[in-house]
Write a structure and sequence with these properties.
Blueprint (H helix, E strand, L loop, with lengths): L16 H21 L6 H8 L3 H7 L3 H26 L5 H18 L3 H4 L14 H17 L5 H24 L5 H19 L1
Helix pairs in contact: 1-2, 1-4, 2-3, 4-5, 4-7, 5-9, 7-8, 8-9
């Protein structure tokens, strides 16, 4: 299993700082509006108005709102990776169970607090990207590359497959927890944690 290339939905990557700041405002506005009006109610014009930029600035980066959602999903993954990396740095040497808790806990924290995340997350709720870059495969590849060094394991096909199965399982069960209760049913979340520990122990112990 080769790592899946990260999708890119930008028509043009920002070069200057001002352009990068404008892109940030556009994605922030997109995230806020997703929480307020949902994906069906989202429009590029509304995003431009909320971001305080000309509509042409939005189209400079994105051809449509689906491309914006994809870029937001990619940004979510980057921020998630940063949060997990910080947790792992603080817990270096504590073992794979601590690493797994960091992976799950940071995902739950973003699901509860990050604007627009409940609708887009990493692209699962609103299908984005291509079939060659499915969101859970993006996440599993990123976690394999991130955790292999922490665990002292080679990021080979077997480890990638293990993390993909874990990610797919956790994704399904966490979404179930948040369908049951708005902030996530803690009983389902704890069952998810125990299930992941039992599965990963076969490979990582």
């Amino acid at each position: 299993m080769k790592p899946v290339p990260h999708a890119t939905s930008l028509r043009r990557a920002p070069v200057q700082r001002r352009s990068a700041e404008r892109l940030t405002r556009i994605l922030d506005a997109c995230a806020d509006l997703l929480d307020e009006v949902g994906y069906d109610g989202l429009s590029t014009r509304a995003v431009a108005q909320r971001a305080g930029v000309p509509i042409g600035s939005v189209y400079r980066f994105f051809g449509n709102k689906r491309a914006m959602a994809d870029a937001l999903a990619q940004r979510n993954l980057e921020r998630y990776t940063e949060r997990v990396t910080a947790r792992l740095a603080a817990a270096e040497g504590d073992g794979w169970r601590t690493a797994m808790d960091a992976v799950l806990d940071e995902y739950l924290a973003m699901k509860r607090t990050a604007p627009g995340f409940s609708l887009v997350d990493f692209g699962n709720q609103i299908p984005v990207g291509s079939r060659y870059s499915e969101p859970n495969t993006r996440v599993a590849d990123r976690l394999t590359d991130l955790l292999s060094g922490y665990l002292g394991r080679t990021p080979d096909d077997a480890l990638r497959r293990t993390f993909l199965i874990a990610v797919e399982t956790a994704d399904t069960l966490v979404h179930l927890a948040f369908r049951v209760l708005p902030d996530g049913d803690e009983r389902i979340i704890e069952e998810t944690r125990e299930l992941l520990r039992a599965y990963l122990a076969r490979v990582l112990d």
